[in-house]
Write a structure and sequence with these properties.
Largest sheet: 2 strands, antiparallel
Number of helices: 6
Strand order of the largest sheet: 1-2
């Protein structure tokens, strides 16, 4: 029952994030942030300062990735205490690398489409593909949060900062909450396997989503 409530709250939070992202794309947040552009008979909005807007759009997604990366660090640090062998530790480290690479690829693609749509707001193909990115971003957030919730217990409301996954990219420098790791080794190992499958599936999806044919040539 408790898990059902937790998952229900997670789905509600993700829904709120999706609503916020769509609202940011389709309607102005403030007069000095966005400007209206007319595409035929259809009015759309674009950001006046896209370099300032993108970190806000991507912040929740990066927070989930940072939390998961931090969680894998904690698993490695607790390997001796939990009786996790060297092979599993190596698997976790490989998973960290794959997750970080997936994050860089996906965030780079999302950034490219975000700026392309902002520069060419009447291009319906770009807008549709950017919408696909925001939908995929929400799905990944839900998966990462669900897996993390199975093996962690949040201990405090306040958060602490983590180092960027991608040096020089401030959108990755997002705080993570304080938490305790589960002592259930079997559940932990099962979650590691599940996360590995998720990251591999995301990698395959990236290939389809990040299609440079739809991006303007430099």
């Amino acid at each position: 029952m408790n898990k059902a409530i937790i998952y229900g709250v997670i789905v509600l939070l993700i829904g709120m994030v999706i609503f916020f992202i769509i609202r940011q794309v389709t309607s102005p947040a403030a007069p000095d942030e966005q400007e209206q552009v007319t595409c035929g008979a259809k009015p759309v909005f674009r950001y006046k300062y896209p370099s300032k807007a993108f970190p806000i759009v991507a912040s929740d997604y990066n927070a989930e990735v940072n939390f998961t990366t931090n969680l894998l660090d904690k698993i490695v640090d607790s390997a001796g205490e939990m009786g996790i062998g060297v092979n599993v530790k190596n698997q976790v480290r490989e998973l960290q690398e794959k997750l970080n690479q997936d994050n860089i690829t996906f965030t780079t693609g999302m950034r490219n489409y975000f700026f392309s749509v902002n520069s060419d707001p009447c291009n319906d193909t770009l807008r549709i593909r950017y919408a696909s990115f925001t939908e995929e971003m929400s799905r990944r957030m839900l998966e990462l949060r669900t897996i993390s919730a199975q093996v962690t217990t949040i201990t405090e409301e306040d958060t602490r900062p983590v180092a960027p996954n991608n040096p020089g990219d401030s959108t990755n420098n997002t705080a993570v909450p304080n938490y305790n790791l589960t002592k259930d080794t079997a559940n932990l190992l099962n979650s590691i396997k599940k996360l590995d499958r998720v990251v591999q599936r995301n990698k395959n999806i990236n290939i389809k989503l990040v299609d440079t044919r739809f991006l303007p040539k430099n």
